Every structure is written in C-alpha cells, then in structure tokens.
Amino acid sequence: MFRRTSRLAVFGLVAGALAVTTTTPAQAASYTEGFDNVAALTSWKVVNLSNPDQPVAATSWQQGDPANFPAQSGAENSYIGVSYEAGFPDASAWLISPQQTSLSSTDALNFWTRVEGSTYPDRIEVRMSTNGSCNPGTTTDGVGDFTTLLGAINPDQVVNGYPTVWTQYNLPLTGLSTTNVSGCVAFRYYVKDTQRNGLYVGIDSVAFTDNASTACTTAQASATSAQATVTSATSTLTAANQTVTTAKKVLKKAKKKLKKARKADAPEKKIKKLKKKVKKAKKALKRARAKAATATTALTNAQAALAAAQASTTSSCP
C-alpha cells in the first residue's frame, strides 16, 4: 500500500487525539484491547509529535489496513497501525493507553506486533508514566512524563530487526516500588529519517496482566503458540525441500534427454525443444531453492522465538 517513491510529499496537519479519556480509569488486572473499532475508542489517545516545526501526516495511529497484513486476532482490520508517513524527517507518534490505577511491579503489559516488511527498518518504544499525568511532552525527541522505558523493538533501527510476522511480547512494569500506582503505558512510533526508514507497524491484542500467576499463564500460552509456529514452519520447509528434490530430478531427466538427442544427431528442431525444457527446469529449480531458503529462515526464526518463549516460561513459572 505504501510507496517508497515521492517520500517528500506534502503532509497534512498534526493529528489530534484519537479520543479524550472520559471514562473511569481501568484497573490493570482487567484491561484488554483488540482495536476492533479504533474510531469508537474512548480511552486511548494519539499524540503526534513528529517534528512540530514541519507539517506531518493528518493520520498517524489508525485502524489497521488488511491490505498491508491482517490482524493477529479477530477481523482482518481489527488492529491499530502507523506508518512512516506520520512525520518527516523524523516520526514520533504516541499511542497512549487508558490511565491505570493499580499498577505494581508484578504487572506486565502483553501485546502482539509486526511490520509490513523488513527492508525499511521500523522502531517502537514502549514507555510508562507513573505520575498520573500521562503527558508525552511537546518535542519530537522528548518523552515528557514517560521516563520509564519498558522495552524497545528494533531500538537501533536495523534491517530485519523487527518481526515480519505477528509476535507476542510481555513486558514487566519494572521500576515500581509501591502498589496501586496511577499511570499509563504508551507505544511510541519513533523512526529517524523517514525518507529512508520506516514502513508500517501494527499493534494488536493489548492486555495488562496483574500478577506472577497471570504472567506464567501468558508465558505458557506464548510458548504453546511458538511451538505451533515451529511445527508449521517445519512442515513448510519439508514440503519446500521435497519440491527442490523433485525439481532436481526433472532437470536431470531433461538434461539426459538433451544429451541423448545430441549424441543421436537428432534434428535441430528437437534439440531446440529439449533445450527449452532444460531451461524451464532450471528456472523451476531456482524458484524451488528460493522458497526452501525462505522456509529455512522462517524455521530458524520460529525456533529462536520458541527458545525465548520457553525461557520466559521458565522465569515466570517457578
């Protein structure tokens, strides 16, 4: 959907708040959001601080676009997304959660995220405000009240540094010395040099978990999901390797027939026909090998994700 040409196009005005918080602050233990209808949200807000001295996009965080990729859960568009068009030359678009009234060090933020592609590196920071104000400030590089960095996905903005498939994250709310803290967490789309970096990021299935037991359950679910991904990736690679084997046999057979025809001094018309078959078989083998390489990378990534999920389960389920 998004094109890398004409990156200097004139953007619209600064995006306003997605919605003003008008409801009673939610308790951390009970809050979940699947972004089924972003326009109808009443407790999340968007603040776009992308270079306030430059025009920025009229929209930053908005309803997910299934033309880029479908949601992690629910309807195809039931997630929230943001693109590099949030600002130029740098993007700093904040998605701020509803205010929570009972945050503690045993709470965690759980969510899923992915990007459209890895060629143009994206970055998300997950930050926490604990003074009750939940104000991200007024500058592109500032963080306002959100001084606690819970984690960052692809912090150095490197190619292939952000997952291109839906991946689950569980971030403990570290740094809280007391219970019943009032505050917010925020997803900050923070991409430097949007002329060359950034494409499209999605967030889905956000939830606050409230104690070690819940964290254990989440970790176990993540490990189960990761194992299923490994199983699927293994099956895909097996099929891809079989296709390579078959393509090799076809090419070998085609070469053998061509060699036999040449040896028998067959008519040029037949030789030409057999050459085309060899060429076609070579192309088929090349495509098969490329798919096998992609499947190998997918399996490697899935195995790494499983290892991480298993490690999380070990630490969360004593």
Automatic annotation (TrEMBL):
<keyword id="KW-0732">Signal</keyword>
<keyword id="KW-0175">Coiled coil</keyword>
<feature type="signal peptide">
    <location>
        <begin position="1"/>
        <end position="28"/>
    </location>
</feature>
<feature type="coiled-coil region">
    <location>
        <begin position="237"/>
        <end position="305"/>
    </location>
</feature>
<protein>
    <submittedName>
        <fullName>Choice-of-anchor J domain-containing protein</fullName>
    </submittedName>
</protein>
